[in-house]
Predict the structure.
Amino acid sequence: MIHAHDADWTAGHLPGQVCEVPGHLRNMLSPAPAVRTEAFEGFYAEAHDQGAVDPCTATSLPFLFDMADDPATPDRAKIVRLLLSIGRDSACCDPEDVYFTTNGVESTAHVDITAEMTKRGDAFVRYAADPDPSVRRPAIEAVGLFLADGRRTARVLAERLPAEDGILERLLIVRTLARLAVRLPEVGATVATWLDELIDSPDRSHVDASVRLSALAHRALIESDLVTADLVPRAIALLRDITATPTAEKSCDGCRRCMTTSHVRGRAVVPTVRPAHLAAFRFDPDHPWEEHSPLSSVLRTLHTTLVDRIAERTALLVAQLNSPDAATRYDAIAMTKELPGTLPRPVLTSLLDLLPDDWAAARTIQGGFSQRLGGRLRVTPEDTELLLDTLDDYMATLRAAHGPDVWATDNAIVREAYQEAVMTLADHRDPRALPDLIRSLETRVDDWRVLYGVSGYPQAADRLVPLLADGLSFIDPARPNAPIPAGLYLSCLAELKDPIAIPVITDTLTWAARHQSWGVVTGALGALASFGLDAQGAHAFVRVLTNAPDEAVRAAARATLKALSDPQAPRTTRPKAGNGYGKEPPY
């Protein structure tokens, strides 16, 4: 291997600044996995941060290619992926422009890197035939980007297809060829002919329904005239022939998603391990966190091609949501969020039919229907009742299966699904959510979540205000934003618009001022101001704060005094007495 000290690492750096890239390159070859991981992270941070390509990035290329060429190099796949990332980001830069490094130094390194990648095109051809599929995957895409001769590129990729026995690699070859046709129109006819042969050819070992579906989707992508009435029916027929995505070999032992959803605020929990994860290679860099099936990139391409043909996209989504393959169904849930406008009834019905599947339920609700999370799934007013009734039925099913306190169950995925269902009901001020909101505040289990929904229930203020006051009593003046911000409790009290909250807010104002917790004081003043004349009894407490040492507090106190004496300010009205539910609680 070339020795790192033989290269000049000063370019792109300020005088006296030391470049750490040579050390990172050496440590990428360490026998210790932890050292190699740290070296890759260090390299990305200094030489390829958020897609940056600097002079030191260009200088490192010979070393990286040297590593990738050696079969004994540990983490060769990571090296090839790094080369692909550097080359792809360089090719996206304007060759006529000058860019600046993180040090503020002018750089045209992207031009040199793009030229070097083209010069090394044959290396990527070799990597694309490597025995290790994790090396072949990034190399296949690199061949499509960096091999200079377009016709040769198409031939190399087409010849790889029969040699591949993995669905990931086959789909990647089809996609790379289609992108080549878009980038180089002169090879468009060649690629189109090849795709047509895949679509219509007799059964062969390397051409199954998945490959045909990919060819069909990408054929329509590169030639919009082929988006005809029979495109979606043909795609659906192929989709039904596709076999299930295999599950991973072992159950999750603590990935980021599982660990974050296993935490319950309010008590200790032994995390429940989820079922075996579905095979989820990060197949498409445009959607790295949403795919469980490699086929999802193909289906996204088809949806992109159909654009605003909502009827066709609806039919396709319904087929995806009803697929016997769990991975296809789960990814379809995410794709429904990209459908413009309100959800067509067939899509909504198919989504709701998935609720008995816990994973699907959580994916459907979380970030989807929940307005609190800015959900993108919108339903028509006529379908709102269907949505809420179905969620209520689902909650009853979970209570029957997991006991009455599902809100706090140890099973992370069931807990998440139940809580999101409750909060979606709360978004619509549905009274059926109220028992769980109250129970969460009483037990202080994941009570942070319900604080985003209780303000929609002023009819239950007599139950909610004391519970919110209890939550405020646990606030540490030295840490008023942990674990739940005091301002969130104060906002809830203000939004409930019940005068019984005024003494609670006044008490909070008093202790916060005594401890000089000025952020809490400002929040309490704003909450009092929202009550207008009804909060006149707090006038003396507020007036004192017009001389507080904090400027923001003084301004807030003056504004609150004005609100407390404004006869035009709206008066709060006490809701009618009742059980707060609007109907008998469901349990």
